[in-house]
């Protein structure tokens, strides 16, 4: 009887490219400014599909870390990986095209355009077309449906024709969230999304963040511990540029180092600190 050749199955070439577990990872990420270490050897992993909060007292290095991720600063040393690819040396535009979008800073809205026009402009940007403000309204009609879907996602449908300058502060933040979603981000970096808001707006925006997190990953800097405890899957705490704690809120909130960093004493549990 003739022998039957044995083939490996499935062949390696037929194996699907599975997404890496951690959408974002930094290894030894460090930023020094003339001897001052703002970010100090940060090893951080953000799991795909999670809401990950980055917290810490003022001056902890959170904003500098975000600036490194979005390439507005180059690291002194260390590595940034996105979907397993080394993006450390990429330009800001390259990083944004990969699907890393920072909200509430680079996604500024136009105050003297309507809410709908703002979202439509963001959609045009995502398509790589110029804004064409001078074109007839009907030439941009094909973007209206998606723009209205995004406004519905952030509960702004009833404000579609309102001039943005007239929106309450919390609604403007919701609009900024919609313009960020228009760029189809895979990883959203939210920089202080509830800063300066009253209680009602904080609750509304917190629920919106939870809502839009479906199908994407969020890394957020946030001072409001009530917000962090209610929506974050994991928390990383920075102090003086270095990680002092990492884990779920229930664990991190009882960490003596974290409590001391915020409260100046380790005698109480961290609750509701801003």
Helix percentage: 25-40%
Give the second-level CATH assignment, the architecture of one domain.
3-Layer(aba) Sandwich
> How many distinct beta strands?
10
What is the CATH superfamily classification of one domain?
A: P-loop containing nucleotide triphosphate hydrolases
CATH topology of one domain: Rossmann fold
Query: Which structural class do the helices and strands define?
Result: alpha/beta
Poorly predicted sequence stretches spanning 5 or more consecutive residues? 4-9
Q: Mind telling me the C-alpha Rg?
A: 22 Å
3D shape: globular
Q: Give the helix tally.
A: 9
CATH class of one domain: Alpha Beta
Q: What's the rounded overall pLDDT mean?
A: 85
Distance between the termini: 78 Å
Strand content: 15-25%
Give the strand line-up of the largest sheet: 6-7-8-3-9-10
Q: N-to-C SSE series?
A: EEEHEEHEHHHEHEHEEHH
The main pleated sheet reads as: 6 strands, mixed
Structure description:
The protein is 31% helix and 23% strand. It has a domain at 19-95 and 188-193 and 215-274: 3-Layer(aba) Sandwich (Rossmann fold). The chain has helices at residues 62-69, 92-98, 115-127, 144-153, 169-181, 199-212, 225-231, 249-252, 256-263, and strands at 22-33, 36-47, 51-55, 77-82, 85-86, 100-103, 187-191, 217-221, 234-239, 242-247. It is globular. The strands form two sheets. The protein has a six-stranded mixed β-sheet, with helices on both faces. Strands 2-1-4-5 form a four-stranded antiparallel β-sheet, with helices on one face. It has 274 residues and is an alpha/beta fold.
């Amino acid at each position: 009887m003739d022998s039957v050749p044995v083939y490996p199955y499935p062949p390696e070439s037929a194996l699907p490219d599975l997404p890496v577990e951690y959408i974002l990872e930094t290894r030894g990420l460090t930023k020094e400014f003339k001897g001052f270490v703002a970010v100090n050897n940060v090893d951080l992993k953000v799991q795909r599909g999670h809401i990950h909060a980055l917290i810490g007292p003022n001056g902890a290095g959170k904003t500098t870390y975000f600036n490194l991720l979005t390439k507005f600063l180059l690291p002194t040393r260390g590595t940034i990986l996105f979907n397993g690819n080394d993006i450390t040396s990429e330009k800001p535009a390259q990083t944004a095209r990969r699907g890393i979008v920072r909200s509430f800073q680079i996604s500024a809205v136009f105050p003297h355009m309507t809410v709908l026009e703002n979202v439509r402009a963001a959609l045009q940007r995502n398509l790589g077309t110029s804004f064409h403000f001078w074109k007839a309204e009907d030439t941009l009609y094909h973007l209206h449906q998606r723009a209205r879907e995004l406004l519905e996602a952030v509960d702004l449908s009833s404000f579609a024709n309102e001039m943005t300058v007239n929106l309450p502060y919390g609604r403007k933040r919701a609009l900024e969230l919609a313009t960020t979603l228009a760029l189809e981000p895979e990883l959203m970096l939210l920089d202080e999304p509830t800063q300066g808001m009253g209680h009602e707006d904080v609750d509304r925006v917190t629920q919106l963040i939870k809502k839009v997190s479906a199908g994407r990953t969020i890394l957020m800097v946030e001072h409001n511990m009530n917000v962090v405890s209610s929506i974050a899957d994991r928390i990383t705490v920075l102090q003086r540029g270095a990680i002092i704690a990492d884990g779920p809120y229930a664990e991190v909130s009882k960490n003596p180092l974290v409590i001391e960093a915020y409260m100046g004493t380790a005698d109480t549990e961290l609750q509701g600190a801003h």
